Amino acid sequence: MRKALEEKIQHLKNEILLLGSMVEQAMRDAVDALKRRDVDAARRIYAADRDINNKRYAIEQETLITIATQQPMAQDLRVLASILEIAGELERMGDYAKGIAKINIMLGDQPLIKPLIDIPRMMELATSMLRRALTAFVEGDVETALAIPAEDDEVDALYNQVYRELVTYMIQDPRTIDQANYLMWAAHNLERMADRVTNICERTLFVVTGELREFDDTDAEATSDRPASQA
Amino acid sequence: MTETPAVELRNLNVYYGSFHAVRDVTLAFPKNKVTAIIGPSGCGKSTVLRAINRMNDLIPNARIEGEVIFEGKNIYDPDVDPVEVRRRIGMVFQKPNPFPKSIYENVAWGVRINGFRGTKRELDDIVEEALRAAALWDEVKDKLHQNALALSGGQQQRLCIARAIAVKPEIILMDEPASALDPIATLRIEDLMRDLVQNYTIIVVTHNMQQAARVSDYTAFFSTDESRTGFLVEFGPTAQIFTNPKDPRTEAYITGRFG
Amino acid sequence: MSVRPRFDPNRAARHRRARIGMVVFQLATLVGIVVLMALLYNIINNAFGLAAIEYRIYPATLGLDLETLPQTPRERLLEILETHLSPGLRRSLERTRPLTQRSNEELAALVLERVLQPKVLDTWPLVPSLLHTQDIVAEVHARFPQAEVRWVRWLNTRFLTRPQSSDPLRAGVRTAILGSLWLVAITAATALPLGVAAAIYLEEYARKDRWYNRLIQVNINNLAGVPSIIYGILGLAIFVRALEPLTSGAVFGAVAEGVTANGRTVLSGGLTLGLLVLPIVIINAQEALRAVPNSLREAAYALGATKWQVVWHHVLPEALPGIMTGTILALSRALGETAPLVVVGASTFITFDPVHPFSKFTALPIQIYQWTARPQPVFRNLAAAASLTLLLLLFLSNGIAVYIRHRARQRRLV
Fold first, then answer.
1. C413 vs B contacts (CB less than 8 Å)
2. Domain containing A38 — which CATH number?
3. Does B148 map to a domain?
4. ipTM beyond 0.95?
5. What is the CATH number of the domain that holds B190?
6. Could you tell me which residues come within 8 angstroms of residue C338 by beta carbon, excluding any fewer than 6 positions away?
7. Cβ atoms within 10 Å, residue C21
8. pLDDT at residue C414 tops 90
């Protein structure tokens, strides 16, 4: 029964996975380019954000059509509503990648004040969380979804470490303040990305149980809620 | 819609006596798609549907103007046999109306009267194939020779669909096929329509907008003017009609603000 | 202190009106039932009762028991015939067929007819017979000292299997029953196919917006209300007079010269009744065809069926139970018709069975009519017995109609 609706939902979940991997790839490329100080690559990444945005609009459109034509109820409705939400989250994550690319462009031909170590680690952690969170969402795997937010602490710890390290640089040599600030901004984007993964996990719980709740009250959100890709 | 339509209405007008029931409908139904016809009561949905396989001929003093082009031929040309038209454009009705005969006979009868000259075994195969296509075979295979009226409403309607597809029509017209059924049976019929559309062109009249949204690829919205004459307001892909209709009357209707 | 009803202050008045209405309807029903009971009472009252019977020789004096007459030893029957028949009569009987070759039943009948010669002097209906048995016996003894008082069941197997006779104790309705059955058979054979065909034309083919079809319809409806005597006159003019060569069987050479019924045959009667019930059959069949849901026709048409296939494969079979019940009820009416048969010329007194369509005939209602016209009181009893027979036949045919309807309904539900 309701084959048409099920096919639609399946297709939308696949689209979400696709969008997720686009975002993941963008973030990976952005951090990688920053590490290598490859401004050309950063420009490409900056431009490619349009694809992510378009994909998000396509998913939104299709979800709305599905809701309009298939009249989903209960879990079906929660899945589709969550897909709308998650597509938005992913698009924001894409913007974080774009923001990092933009920092790379703004740094111009400056060499890095230090080799990047913790920021790529943050990227690895955040993209891994994203990948698993989306898989858990698509599969309705609440257990995994509940476990992932804890990893956010690790990202937060790395962020604090990067923060302290960069502050030390700034105190030692005020000429580094500009670049250190930019790098802090990049780290902050990654930290925010991990926070948004937590939101995806919340949606998984919502789809399966209908329960809407914030996962982690000690979330860093309260302390670091600044727009990510302002420029 | 670049491919050739399955059937095309050109300036179709239908009159019942002096009553102008449907005005100037020009509409091409795409092949191998489900097209839904929706609209408020009395907008001539069923009239248009029945004009496509000349069922209106059975109503005394019904009169048709305009053309219905099927395979390059106007089916209202004087040299066209309405019996042949109805064989190639089947119909399923609002209320399940199986013949008061066995399940087997219900399917086999149409095949036989259309000049079937094969063996009993071949006929058995045709019956089985039609019942399978109508997703009914598993439920009735052990009671093919029981009276069809003993089936549930939903099963009866699927039997009527099996009966219609057994004669291998190109187009299946459905006149509110699920309006007499419960919601579960309705969804079954809708799934069946999605399956059948691989091989057939389906035109379905429904007063249930949600159903039209669920099953159809294209939607035609009809309305009536002040003299109660029905006419076509808008035709387009279902996704567009239900999310972004071009005509304000369509928008008013699908949002439940009119009709 | 009375409490005013809160929602409907007129409730009491409304209830009173409803009660009055109900009483009126119940009374109407009651009147119908009373009339029907009175009719049945009258018939049954006359079909059974006491009778004063006189014999030329009383059975008791010969040591015979009337109830078991055919079981009497053969020798005894022969001996009685030997001693009590006049030699001339005996000789003539022997010439027809020797007595010794006749069966016990035949011998017993001869004894009854020629020797005992019972004669009914008077009869009493069932109710007085039961209530005033002693008075009746006393009265019989006073009026007819010779007579014997006996219980008589006027409707018995002998009555059903014997032909008409002027002797009330030997008269039966076999000829009349057979005549009626022949009539009904001929009526059915003509009215059913014609009526169904006409009904199919009017319902399935005729366009109702054409004036001539409406005219036909109106005429059929009116014909159903024409008095039956008019049909009798029509039958007389057409079948008895104009088509005499046909209805007398002359053109078929079926009847020997001299015994022809001159067109006043069972065929003429049957055809006349056929005309009489034709409009009813048509209307009933139309009703049955109209009751076939249109969705069934549409279902068949939508599969590419022709009109003929739709009517022949679906509409007619579906309407058939309705047509049959309607027809049977119409035939029941034919079974009870008297007037047209009188006009067409049913014989009132024939003693031989109708054996082919060109026979002279009588029918049950004719027989009843004829008996009620006789002055002797005993024929009233015969008329009552025949009426009961007719009622039973009608009951049977209506029962068949009900059965067909019931079975058709069950078939739909299975």
1. 149-150
2. 1.20.58.220
3. no
4. no
5. 3.40.50.300
6. C363, C365, C366, C369
7. 10
8. no
